[in-house]
Fold:
Amino acid sequence: MRKSSAVPRTGQGALTIARQSQEIAFSLLVSSGPAGRRTGKGSLTGEPEAMRRAFRAGDARLTLDDGTEHQIAIVAHSEGDGTAYFELR
Structure:
């Protein structure tokens, strides 16, 4: 039997790094891991300088459009690009 792929949640939100908030667009895919633990990963799109700062900081807080907050780890970014990739903490 073939497993259907999950659809990522997308929207507008805010990325907070060191008490500074930046508006971003997000794509988030959350799944259930072992023992009911939630795991997730996704991408953020915003100003290239904000994505650079986020990657250098490593940890940040992502606030979704419905007010839900997630602690995230920025795991990848290309210098000069407006997209960064993250995993939920």
Remarks:
- Residues 6 and 31 are 8 Å apart (CA to CA).
- The helical segments are 48-57.
